[in-house]
Inverse folding.
């Protein structure tokens, strides 16, 4: 009897899709027309991975080593990586009236939407909100850049940095990120707003736009809208206390360090306390279904809420809603996987790199959380070190749970006896 072909899972499609997008970007960046000076193949792969994974770690100076064509390729990779390749592919299929059920599921899973949400609405709200916000951000940048650069260069820089900021990528065309604008509230606040909006997630946008019709917000959206300002305010205060920068720069770093990777002061010279605070914020990250990384704000909140209730036998609840057991188990599972990847990655870098522990730990968390901040280690990475960071960036963007779901064997569905294990 002939066996049928095993269908590829949605999770495997997401993992493979990101990989193919990275390879395409790698080939385009290898072209002579993309390079202003010689860039090695490994560095091209590193940059492509960092762009598609909207991380921002970069071993070269893209403003000097990539041509205008190369920079535009990078900008396109950031846009595709932020939206998710699935949205782009399915949008094309949708316009051709060839979208299949698998493709619809792929988009919903990629962005975190429920199956009940119409695919047309997902595409409409996702693409519209992205391009409108990026356009407005570019306009604000342009008002400042036109005072510093020729018209065409000001337009290019405005569009590039708006896309990079909204997609929480952290790539810049100034060689030293936003340090030259540390006293410029227009540039820093505009960048921060784009980062925050990009980090909220498309589910939140959809809920907000549907509020007039439904007259309620989901528990997910309420938690995101509660946690985002809490983390921003707490981060601003703590950066001010540990770094000694102005309130503006402290706020900027609070917004950027959770997922974007822009900086207005050199993190290589940051105090130990400021660096450790950055690691914590990077690890928490943005919100689900967004362009940001990390374990996500909702995961962090669910873990904290559960930890306060788990020992007295009460179910965690917030906003008159109980958090489901599935969400709690998934949150702790994601935390475990994240800690494993960060621990393993840091350990491997201690073997391959000649550096102290803090910059290595910082680099690993930055790569996993797709942030892009560095304590000066990225350009100094060895060949093995770059390969390790490439893998960590990929795992961080695709998601450890997605990767495990993509390769795990089918469940046996056997309900086995339950037994207690002594804990603690």
């Amino acid at each position: 009897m002939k066996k049928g072909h095993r269908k590829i899972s949605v999770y495997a499609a997401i993992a493979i899709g990101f990989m193919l997008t990275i390879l395409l970007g790698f080939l385009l960046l290898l072209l002579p027309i993309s390079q202003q000076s010689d860039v090695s193949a490994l560095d091209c792969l590193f940059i492509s991975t960092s762009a598609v994974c909207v991380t921002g770690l970069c071993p070269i100076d893209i403003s000097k080593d990539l041509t205008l064509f190369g920079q535009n390729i990078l900008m396109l990779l950031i846009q595709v990586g932020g939206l998710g390749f699935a949205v782009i592919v399915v949008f094309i299929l949708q316009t051709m009236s060839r979208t299949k059920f698998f493709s619809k599921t792929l988009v919903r899973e990629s962005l975190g939407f429920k199956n009940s949400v119409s695919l047309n609405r997902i595409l409409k709200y996702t693409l519209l909100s992205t391009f409108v916000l990026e356009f407005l951000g570019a306009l604000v940048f342009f008002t400042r850049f036109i005072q510093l650069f020729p018209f065409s260069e000001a337009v290019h820089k405005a569009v590039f940095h708006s896309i990079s900021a909204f997609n929480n990528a952290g790539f810049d065309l100034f060689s030293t990120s936003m340090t030259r604008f540390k006293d410029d509230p227009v540039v820093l606040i505009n960048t921060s707003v784009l980062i925050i909006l990009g980090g909220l997630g498309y589910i939140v946008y959809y809920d907000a736009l549907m509020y007039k019709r439904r007259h309620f917000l989901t528990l997910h959206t309420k938690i995101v809208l509660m946690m985002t300002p809490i983390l921003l305010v707490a981060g601003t205060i703590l950066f001010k206390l540990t770094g000694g920068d102005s309130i503006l720069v402290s706020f900027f770093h609070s917004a950027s360090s959770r997922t974007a990777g822009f900086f207005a002061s050199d993190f290589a010279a940051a105090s130990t306390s400021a660096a450790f605070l950055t690691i914590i914020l990077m690890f928490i990250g943005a919100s689900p279904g967004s362009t940001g990384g990390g374990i996500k704000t909702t995961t962090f909140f669910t873990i904290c809420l559960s930890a306060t209730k788990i020992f007295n036998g009460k179910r965690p609840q917030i906003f008159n809603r109980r958090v489901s057991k599935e969400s709690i188990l998934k949150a702790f599972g994601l935390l475990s996987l994240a800690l494993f990847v960060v621990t393993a990655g840091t350990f491997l870098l201690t073997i391959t790199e000649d550096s102290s522990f803090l910059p290595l730990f910082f680099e690993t968390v930055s790569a996993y959380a797709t942030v892009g901040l560095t304590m000066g280690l990225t350009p100094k990475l060895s060949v093995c070190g770059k390969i390790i960071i490439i893998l960590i960036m990929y795992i961080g963007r695709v998601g450890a749970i997605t990767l495990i779901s993509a390769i795990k064997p089918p469940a046996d569905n056997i309900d086995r006896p339950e037994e207690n294990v002594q804990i603690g």
